[in-house]
Each structure stands twice: as structure tokens, then as C-alpha cells.
User: What shape does this take?
Amino acid sequence: MSKKYLIVGGVAGGASAAARLRRLGEDDEIIMFEKGRDVSFSNCCLPYHLSGQIKKPEHLVLMNPKKFSGQYNIDARTHSEVIAIDRDNKQIEVKDLLSDKTYKESYDKLILSPGAHPIVPPIPGIEKANVFTVRNVVDIDKLNQFIHKVKPSRITVIGGGFIGIEVMENLIEAGHQVSLVEALPQVLNQFDHELVQILHKEIMDNGVELIVGDKVTGFDTNKVMLESGKEIHSEVVVMSIGVLPETGLAKQAGLKLGKTGAIKVDPNFLTNDPDIYAVGDAIEVYNILTQDEFKLSLAGPALKQARSVADHIHGRIINNTGFIGSSVVKVFNYNAAATGLNEKMLANLNVEYGWVQIIPKDKVGIMPDAEELGFKVIFEKPTGRVLGAQAIGHGNVDKRVDVIATAIKFGATVEHLRDLELCYAPPFGTGKDAVNFAGYVASNLLHGAFEQVSMSEVRGLVESGAYILDVREMDEYEAGHIKVAKSIPLSELRDRYQEIPKDVPIYVHCRSGQRSYNAVLTLQAKGYQQVFNISGGFLGVCCYEYFNDKTLGRDPIMTEYDLK
Assistant: This one.
């Protein structure tokens, strides 16, 4: 006997649920309602229309109602807003936004996938500014046409999350002057503060006026005013400070919301109504690492949830393993990927953890296109269970973070990372991949083989007069070094170690952390008790210090930067 399934929302989650339902039931009636103009468009590709990489806005649309009908026998209704749910009679009320007429549709099962809407706070003077948001194809087309019409002298992007970064980059690629304002001390809060500094430099080096730690307090005609007193002359403002789940329909229907304010669902993505499911940005999901609910606005999880709902409707057993949050973003010439927990998240949890931060090459060092890869892995103590990872570099950082994401989902430890057999050839990686290398270092830290300090602590060490030992070769030292550092190359250390005092802590660095690790072990073997490796080495310290040195006008702690 055929059933009737209604779906609210026609983008990632809704369209995926509709297609899966059709594959599982050829004779069922499936109707999908989308209040916007388009169904099944690529949200994540929207900013790339601004630079012309995606030339026409219609290219952003992956399917249209005619194709849904012809290929899947799905009735996709655009400009159709579902305004009410009658749970007792299992009906919805729909408003045709073109004719302004309303009508009702009955259902056997209802799937909510309304998504989320951009946050636009009531900042004083906002009505005087040309403020845009980026949620759908109509939005990005409207923004792009306005920019071409007014030819602004400067565009201000407010918010340094994924959308803000991508909009900023594509506006620069299109030849515009851009300011990026982020109220937090850093962009891309998925990354820890010390790792993201290289992205700050990259943004600044590409001509963006990057302002962090300062928030917008008001607007005037062609003017953005900040808390610091700074004013930005800007004819166009793009607001990208985050999104809120669309819960109006759920509230009207008496469906439960969770602690995050999003729709509460069970492991099968059912709401508190046994005939209503919900997926995507509008719901809260279970984080397997924090063992708590959180909001996760990513396309991949929405697609998985949609498939699970269709399977559950058809009586198939689904396996909800929870979510960890994995993402990647391009920032001009750098790529940045993250998964799981970072240190900021762990600060709010009662979890003892350790971390390893390394800067290996992304492929064999003698290859002409080999690049440094900033790589951080976080693990639980004392179990060694992998909790998260972040990677930033010019190469395929997603490859390394995808491996860690897989490891996390399977409950792997840092010991497992050491033992992974990963693809190797000089153009692609190294015989001991960055993931393996991180596993080795993390295992050593976990078992107390040595101790470390973060690159973020080095300025404080310099200011306190700590003993810092540089074990790079002399030509490297002379090209640039930490101002107070003593130079004893690793190749001379065994002959000269007695020059190093034993009654104070010794902080050792090389360029990226490998040679200094060997130096730490050598000194420990010679009876030194307080020896610490500086994670990331001189390169990491330079990357961490550069942006704040330049923007705050402070004195560098090194004679020259190494940022190659």
C-alpha cells in the first residue's frame, strides 16, 4: 500500500531524503516544499559566484522541479511555505507565495528540513547600510548584482567563519578592497589560536584589512563603526556572523526543542511526534566526544541524517554513531582542516588531555613542491584516545584530517596512528606520514619520554629570561633567531653540552621540532632533568608571532622571521 510523505525544505537534507524515499518506495507519493525559488542548490558553492569561478547563478542549482519530477517522480514545489502543522489531523498548511493562496496537504510521515537563517542583530543604524546575507542563490545573485552596480570602494565582511572567509576570498579574487571584522580574537574558531595565526598572515598578505577582537557597534551611510572607535568607509556589508536553526514551524506544532535551541530528535531523527522527523541545520545532534548535544551546520551530516530517516521510515535498522564535526576551508594559498575537539572546547570539559604539534613536510622534502604542514593532534590522558586534529598548509591537509576523523569514529588511540599503513610515493607523502609522525610524538609524550611547551609560550620565556637553546646549524641561526637564544648546533651538542647549565630549565628548538627532540633526548641522557622541546620550532614561533607583531606594532622576539 502506497504512503504519502511530505518534506519541508528542498536543499541538502530535504532533497536527499526525497531521493532516498523514492529509491525505497516506487509507488509512494512524495511532495517537497521549498519556500525559496530553488531546490537542491549548492550552499557551499555560493561564495564562488562572486569571483566568477561559478559564472552564472543558475549553475549553482543542481536540480529543478522538472528534473525532480522526471527523474524521481517527486513533486518539488518552490515558492511554497509551510506555515502550520496540524498534528492531530496529520496535515500541513501551505502558502503559495506567488498566488498568496493557502491549501492543506495530508501526510503519513512528515520530514522537517528547514535549515537555518543568518543572524542579523539589530545593530544601531543598520537600516542605513547596504547589508546582505548569503543563504541561497537569490541572496548571492542579489549581492553580486549590487556590487557590479555600485562599484564599491570597499566591502566589509562581518564574521570570520567559513562563509565569511569564503566571501572575503572571492571578493578579493574579483578585485575588490575588503575589510574582514571578527569580534573574537581569531578567525575560524574551529582552530586553536596558535595554529590559526598563519592564516591571519595569509589574509593580511592578500590585501585584506583584517580586524580581530573588535566588534561592530553601529552603522551609518556607507560607514561601519567598531567598538574600538575605528570606522570603516564601506558601501557594502556582508553579514556572516553565524546562523540560527529555523524552529518556528516546530514551535507552532508543539515539537520539543533541545538545550541548544534546535529541534530535539531521538537516535532515529524522530521528534516527539512519532510521524514527524527532522534533519539538517535545524536539529541538534549527539557529539560522541563531549557526550552531549550540539548544533552542526554541515552538509555531510545533513545528507547522512536524511538517508537514515528514509531508511527508518521503511523499517530498516539505522546505526546512529553520533557526530564529531569535520570541516575544511580554503584561505587563499592555504588549506585548513579540522575534526573533533580543539583546546578551546576541552577547556569547558572535565577531560585531561595532551597534544602534539608538529610541522613536517607534506611529501618527501627533496621534491620541488614539498611544503610544510602545520599539524596538531589532541588526545585523551591516560588512554591515548584521539580527540581531534587540525592541519594547515599549502597541500592536501584534508587527507591527514580525514584519516584522524576516521580514527576518532573507530575509537583509535595515538598508538594506532603509529601503526597505520598509509599510501606513500614521493609526490604524495612520506614513508612516515604526518599522521604516523604525530602518533609517534604523541605516544612519547603520553608515556613521559619528554616534555614540551607550546610556541605560544615562547614570548613569555624570552621576557622572563629563560634559557633557550637553538640547535639548528650556524647558517640557519645567523639567518634569523630568537634574540636571547644560545646557539649549539645538534651536530656539536655532544661535544659542547657542558656549556649548558643544569640548574635551570632548558627550552630547546630547531626549525620545526625534530632535531630539537633528538637534542632533548641527548641532554636527558647526559643528566639534565628540566629539558623541554618547543613545539613547532623556530618556524612555528615565527608563524605565531608575525601577525600580532605587525598589527600591534610590538617588538619581535626574533631577529628575522622564517615564514617559508
Q: What stands out?
A: The mean pLDDT is 96. The longest strand covers residues 373-380.
